[in-house]
């Protein structure tokens, strides 16, 4: 018995083979004759023993991927009736964790039109005491049929609404149809029988158990067809949400009958002639008019899911699978999401010319039943009770800023300030939208430029793992359109469609670009618009549009000659155009210097990580990435403001940076007004970490310190070249700052802030204070260590 070149017996699970279908040419509720004709039994032997002697199975010639039939024997009817009673008993009596009737409460919400989806958990069926294992096996192996069984049980159990509901189009239509049926004698005519699907305003899903490891795509084989499976992967492509016809309704021009046709496939053959008794008696071929308002449509979306890189065997390429989402499951996934799906693995036969060429081969797809995201977006993060307590405890910790930063990639030695900057990149600042529509970005862009072997790529990979939404790409492996957007021909519709690149996929997330210096100049210019305006504008192949790319860019690059050449100026070494440099909030120069003590420490750290496969003791337990995400999601809900009293302080700090750069012969950075916005962004991110509604002066000082420390390795070289030792340099810094502010008294906190920006420690400051106090240059307060210059 063949269907579109497929042996149907092989495609059905044993239970599906217990059913037979009506011999109508299309899955319609209107039969061609009121008396069904007997169907001859199949001559070919069935692959499995049949429990009922008088049973047959046939399929309509119209492409249906729903392998279902109408039971021929009384025994099978009885079995499904028994199963419906078991389903009703389970839905009525299953108690949730608090002892409440879980599914009755869900049904009440459905009756009150608060929700449409009824998700039946397989774990609840496992835990239900009165349920036999045989029923559970049947539900798992013949899920498509048992969704109907549960839906029929729900039809009988659905309670009356407890709230006053406004009549919508669907209710008015149902009432009208019910009245018409009553007037015409209770609907005795089989042609006017209304399918149950058109009455339902809810959807039933059976969710697979979350215990155990999900399948990879290549582990789902033909033996799983018709069964409930759970797979994991990354979504690579999503179609638009379109209406899919579930029940087609026609009205006859002659007799006025309403004819229903149930559609169970992607394509169907519409009815043309009225099959009602009245038209047959009158020998009139009634013309059927499709009634789109009366028909029932479902939301439908198609997606492609691809194997994760860690699941692909050596030398193989990742496999993909088509997934169909219906109803309330649509718009749950986007390209780039790593998800776990449970669904029914089904075949879909080829139609038309492709069916002739395909022969016995059928395509397969997954009918999705549930979607679980591995990493939720910050906005979708719902903190549980224990997580809220943990975050509250962390927020009260005075040293949380350092702990969070050191919890990022604890296996990588040092780079404390770099990790602090990357933490602020994860937190970000609030986006500002002005009244006239102008937007000021809140995302922080960072470029790590350094010698080979300073763990730049490892830091990038770790940040992508921590971030809920991240895309990793390399300079040579990315073209301009690969980063922004490309115009491609859709393989299904043959239309020109826009395919988002890495920066568009990383919208509201982080895009890490490694080997940034190896990119072609023409490709690198495509990033300029994304980094400031946060959009991608396209005018190609008749498509003119603007895509959102609200992403934080984290780039890693090597200096112009592979390693930083101290004989050349910083501008020659960095070798990036000023237009691009000014867009980065922080350009971090990491130089690999030979230092006996540091090298020894680092070697011990690396050896410990190799042997123990974990970082050495940090003095505290590093926070898990999930805790980091929870803390950051809570921090991102705040929108700190800059108080008026800090405005002058920030303005003077910015102007002093500009003055320093103007005096220098070889400036280390390129300071523009964007630098001022960078100070505000970093300060706001620091205030978010403290869960504060206002930016404090300490936040601004830390932002300035990070900007200064990003070039720290260069400043130490400048000092060596100028011949100044640390103590003399600290004295000159304090003297210059006091002269600039025209003050004789300098507080210890201000002095420490000034010298820490230049990369000096508190111990060096105290040594300087003692040495110059002995020379009567200044006086030191014995308790507070405040400085008073002696007027010479």
Automatic annotation (TrEMBL):
GO BP field: DNA replication initiation; DNA strand elongation involved in DNA replication; double-strand break repair via break-induced replication
UniProtKB keywords: ATP-binding, Cell cycle, DNA replication, DNA-binding, Helicase, Hydrolase, Nucleotide-binding, Nucleus
GO cellular component, one term: MCM complex
Major location (coarse): nucleus
InterPro entries named in the record: MCM (IPR031327), MCM7 (IPR008050), MCM_CS (IPR018525), MCM_dom (IPR001208), MCM_lid (IPR041562), MCM_N (IPR027925), MCM_OB (IPR033762), NA-bd_OB-fold (IPR012340)
Single GO MF descriptor: single-stranded DNA helicase activity
Compartment(s): Nucleus
EC number: 3.6.4.12
Catalytic activity: ATP + H2O = ADP + phosphate + H(+)
Comp. bias regions, Polar residues: 16-32
Family from the record: Belongs to the MCM family.
Cited function: Acts as component of the MCM2-7 complex (MCM complex) which is the replicative helicase essential for 'once per cell cycle' DNA replication initiation and elongation in eukaryotic cells. The active ATPase sites in the MCM2-7 ring are formed through the interaction surfaces of two neighboring subunits such that a critical structure of a conserved arginine finger motif is provided in trans relative to the ATP-binding site of the Walker A box of the adjacent subunit. The six ATPase active sites, however, are likely to contribute differentially to the complex helicase activity.
Protein name from the UniProt record: DNA replication licensing factor MCM7
Organism name: Sesamum indicum
């Amino acid at each position: 018995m063949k269907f579109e070149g497929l042996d149907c017996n092989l495609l059905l699970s044993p239970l599906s083979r217990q059913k037979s279908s009506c011999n109508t040419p299309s899955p319609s509720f209107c039969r061609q004759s009121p008396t069904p004709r007997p169907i001859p039994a199949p001559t070919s032997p069935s692959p499995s023993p049949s429990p009922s002697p008088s049973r047959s199975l046939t399929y309509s010639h119209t492409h249906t991927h729903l392998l279902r039939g109408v039971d021929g024997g009384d025994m099978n009817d009885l079995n499904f009736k028994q199963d419906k009673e078991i389903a009703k008993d389970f839905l009525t009596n299953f108690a949730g964790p608090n002892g409440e009737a879980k599914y009755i409460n869900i049904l009440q919400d459905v009756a009150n039109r608060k929700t449409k989806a009824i998700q039946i958990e397989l774990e609840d069926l496992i835990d239900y005491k009165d349920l036999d294992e045989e029923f559970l096996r049947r539900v798992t192996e013949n899920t498509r049929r048992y969704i109907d069984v549960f839906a029929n049980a729900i039809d009988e159990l659905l309670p009356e609404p407890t709230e006053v509901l406004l009549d919508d189009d669907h209710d008015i239509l149902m009432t009208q149809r019910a009245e018409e049926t009553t007037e015409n004698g209770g609907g005795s005519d089989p042609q006017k029988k209304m399918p149950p699907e058109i009455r339902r305003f809810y959807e039933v899903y059976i969710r697979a158990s979350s215990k155990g490891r999900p399948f990879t795509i290549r582990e789902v084989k033909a033996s799983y067809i018709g069964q409930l499976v759970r797979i994991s992967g990354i979504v690579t492509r999503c179609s638009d949400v379109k209406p899919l016809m579930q029940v087609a309704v026609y009205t006859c021009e002659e007799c006025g009958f309403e004819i229903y046709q149930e559609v169970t496939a992607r394509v169907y053959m519409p009815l043309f002639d009225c099959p009602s008794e009245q038209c047959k008696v009158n020998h009139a071929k009634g013309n059927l008019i499709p009634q789109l308002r009366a028909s029932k449509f479902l939301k439908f979306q198609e997606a492609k899911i691809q194997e994760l890189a860690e699941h692909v065997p050596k030398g193989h390429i990742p496999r993909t699978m088509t997934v169909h989402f219906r109803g309330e499951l649509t718009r749950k996934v986007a390209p780039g999401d790593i998800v776990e799906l449970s669904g029914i693995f089904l075949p879909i036969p080829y139609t038309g010319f492709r069916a002739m060429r395909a022969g016995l081969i059928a395509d397969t797809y997954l009918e999705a039943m549930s979607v679980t995201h591995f990493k939720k977006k910050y906005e979708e993060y719902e903190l549980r009770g224990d997580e809220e307590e943990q975050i509250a405890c962390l927020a009260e910790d005075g040293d949380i800023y350092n702990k969070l930063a050191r919890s990022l990639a604890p296996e990588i030695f040092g780079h404390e300030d770099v990790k602090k900057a990357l933490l602020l990149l994860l937190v970000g600042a609030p986006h500002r939208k002005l009244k006239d529509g102008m937007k000021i970005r809140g995302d922080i862009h960072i470029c790590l430029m350094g010698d080979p072997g300073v763990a730049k790529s490892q830091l990038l990979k770790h940040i992508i793992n921590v971030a809920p939404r991240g895309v990793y790409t390399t300079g040579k492996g990315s073209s301009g359109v690969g980063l922004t957007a490309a115009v491609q021909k859709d393989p299904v519709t043959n239309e020109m469609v826009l395919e988002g690149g890495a920066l568009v996929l990383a919208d509201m997330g982080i895009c890490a670009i490694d080997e940034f210096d190896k990119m072609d100049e023409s490709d690198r210019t495509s990033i300029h618009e994304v980094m400031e305006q946060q959009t991608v504008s396209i005018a190609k192949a008749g498509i003119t549009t603007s895509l959102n790319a609200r992403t934080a860019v984290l780039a890693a690059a090597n200096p112009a000659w592979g390693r930083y050449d101290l004989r050349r100026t910083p501008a020659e070494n960095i070798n990036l155009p000023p237009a691009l440099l000014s867009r980065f909030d922080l350009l971090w120069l990491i130089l690999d210097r030979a230092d006996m003590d540091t090298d020894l420490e680092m070697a011990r750290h690396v050896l410990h990580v190799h042997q123990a496969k974990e970082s050495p003791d940090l003095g505290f337990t590093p926070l898990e990435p999930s805790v980091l995400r929870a803390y950051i999601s809570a921090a991102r809900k705040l929108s700190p403001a800059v108080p008026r009293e800090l405005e002058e302080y920030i303005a003077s700090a910015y102007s002093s940076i500009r003055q320093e750069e103007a005096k220098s012969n070889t400036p280390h950075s390129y300071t523009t007004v964007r630098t001022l916005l960078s100070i505000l962004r970093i300060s706001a991110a620091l205030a978010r970490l403290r869960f504060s509604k206002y930016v404090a002066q300490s936040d601004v000082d830390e932002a300035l310190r990070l900007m200064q420390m990003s070039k720290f390795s260069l400043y130490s070289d400048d000092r060596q070249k100028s011949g100044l030792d640390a103590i003399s340099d600290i004295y000159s810094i304090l003297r210059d700052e006091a002269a600039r502010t025209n003050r004789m008294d300098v507080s210890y906190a201000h002095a420490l802030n000034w010298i820490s920006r230049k990369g000096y420690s508190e111990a060096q400051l105290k040594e300087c204070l003692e040495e110059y106090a002995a020379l009567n240059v200044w006086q030191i307060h014995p308790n507070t260590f405040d400085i008073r210059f002696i007027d010479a």
